[in-house]
Design a protein that fits this description.
- This protein is mostly helical.
- The protein has one domain.
- It is 72% helix and 2% strand.
- A two-stranded antiparallel ribbon has the order 1-4. A two-stranded antiparallel ribbon has the order 2-3.
- α2 runs antiparallel to α10.
- It starts with 15 loop residues before the first helix and ends with a helix.
Length: 333
């Protein structure tokens, strides 16, 4: 009897019911939501903002789950991607979509500056990345000749019109960020099921053992950091063209790291769906419920929600739902 080392081995094709459910979900997201909410600019703005948080949450979860690294400094990648894309369109005349792609690549390149921190573990790595985020914010503030300093950048070009459709509208922005986030989810799923994903899981079990068999753990960690930075930078670049304004305290604000972390943990950061569900749920609850009850300090409740979730279900909402579903199946049986 032989055992295949291929992580794809033994995977059956998706059943027709699952394919139909996926098609229905995509139809709702791409067609039903814009048709139902497109006339309500406030709700569409909330949808775009929640998906922006979801994109960062998924990037953070990828780094934590596959890379085994907890980061408090994803606002660095968000801000770098924002500024690179904005500056390319304002000062170099680049089209918006290529500039957004360049913003993501620029954030990935900027993450190379954090390579020395990869030899740190646990809270030491998290705090080191947080320090880098503050360094980038200071650079953006002081380099006023390029970034505008504390005054920021205004009149950043909006998302363009293509084939007669205005991507600069609320519905257009929603479709763009939705596509970006779903692309992230596909990349995450493919990576997790690949040989690289297998090596990363082995590295989590024993980093020394993986080195013995020839796996360079530092290179793997750096690759995950760069990919996570690329994803976050793309979201930051999109956001710059969506809001048309940037200043350092906004672009590198700690909330771009904290809220996605809360969302990812509440949803279940070890799954792909968890950070997405957590981001939409946490953000909408914060904006539609908590903000109306507590106009100031409403995000304190998010911290309390995080603590409660860690106590009740450390694996997040998706794991809690799965656990209840299994109990229902056992009870029925």
């Amino acid at each position: 009897m032989t055992t295949s080392l291929n992580p794809q081995a033994g995977r059956a094709a998706w059943p027709a019911s699952r394919v139909a459910a996926l098609a229905a979900t995509l139809a709702v997201l791409y067609v039903a939501v814009p048709l139902a909410l497109g006339h309500n600019l406030y709700l569409m703005s909330l949808a775009v903002a929640s998906l922006t948080i979801a994109g960062i949450a998924l990037a953070w979860a990828l780094l934590g789950n596959l890379g085994g690294m907890v980061s408090f400094g994803h606002s660095a990648f968000f801000g770098v991607g924002s500024y690179i894309s904005a500056l390319l369109t304002l000062k170099a005349g680049w089209p918006v979509f290529p500039a957004i792609a360049a913003g993501g690549v620029g954030a990935a390149v900027a993450s190379l500056a954090m390579a020395p921190a990869l030899r740190l573990k646990g809270p030491y790595f998290a705090l080191a990345i947080l320090a880098y985020a503050q360094i980038f914010r200071i650079v953006a503030t002081e380099w006023s000749g390029l970034t505008g300093g504390a005054s920021g950048l205004s009149s950043i070009p909006s998302l363009p019109k293509l084939a007669g459709f205005d991507f600069g509208s609320k519905s257009g922005g929603y479709l763009v960020i939705l596509t970006i986030v779903l692309a992230f989810a596909v990349v995450y799923a493919k990576l997790r099921g690949s040989h690289v994903g297998l090596a990363l899981r082995a590295m989590h079990e024993s980093e020394d053992a993986t080195r013995v068999v020839g796996v360079n753990s530092v290179i793997l960690k750096l690759a995950m950091l760069m990919l996570s930075a690329l994803m976050t930078g793309l979201v930051g670049a999109f956001n710059a063209h969506y809001i048309n304004f940037l200043e350092p305290d906004y672009a590198f604000n700690a909330s771009w790291a904290v809220v996605p972390i809360i969302a990812a943990i509440c949803g279940g950061y070890r799954t792909i769906l968890g950070p997405l569900v957590g981001a939409v749920s946490v953000y909408l609850i914060d904006q539609l419920v908590l903000k109306s009850l507590l106009p100031t300090g409403h995000q304190i409740v998010l911290g309390m929600l995080l603590v409660a979730m860690i106590i009740v279900s450390p694996a997040g909402l998706t794991a809690l739902r799965l656990k209840r579903t299994r109990r229902g199946v056992y009870a029925a049986g």
